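haha ok so turns out i had the wrong file open the whole time. this is the CORRECT one, sorry everyone. sequence first:
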Amino acid sequence: MTDVTQLLAAANRGDQLAAAELLPLVYEELRQLATAKMASEKPGHSLDATALVHEAYLKLVGDRGFNDRQHFFRVAAEAMRQILVDRARRRLRVRHGGDRQRVGLSDVASFAETPPDDVLALDEALTRFTEVDPQKAELVKLRYFAGLTEQDAADALGISRATASRNWTFARAWLIQAMESVS
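then structure:
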């Protein structure tokens, strides 16, 4: 068991000291994930990598139990996804200049470069895809929203890289078709 896994187990049992010791161990890895997502964000953006990590960590602490390190980072990826989607929704509100139009996602690009309306369309399609194939949807969340490499995402899901590659290809095709059918 890694230190993170042991601390997660202790925190699940209610050990507050373990919960406090956990943040320094996972902070740098969470910050790297967030930095990768925010690297190509437009200058002057109100959210930076540090803020994204802090918001995600606040979503993670509480009553949630984590089975192991991989589970923790999968939940962290989902928390980052929710934060970024919520921010995209706020930017699109009419009072914030939102003029929504759907555009098909021809290829998965950097999240930071994706217009907010595309993020919302992807989120809607991903929600439907989760009902069809939860594991492949989880792979999309890890790759697209958390910025994990194919190998890192495969490790987090406990699958081979070859399976992750096949699942990634299928998921992208499914999401593109779902987004184009809504346009």
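The helical segments are 3-12, 16-38, 49-60, 69-92, 116-132, 134-145, 150-157, 161-182.
again sry for the mixup
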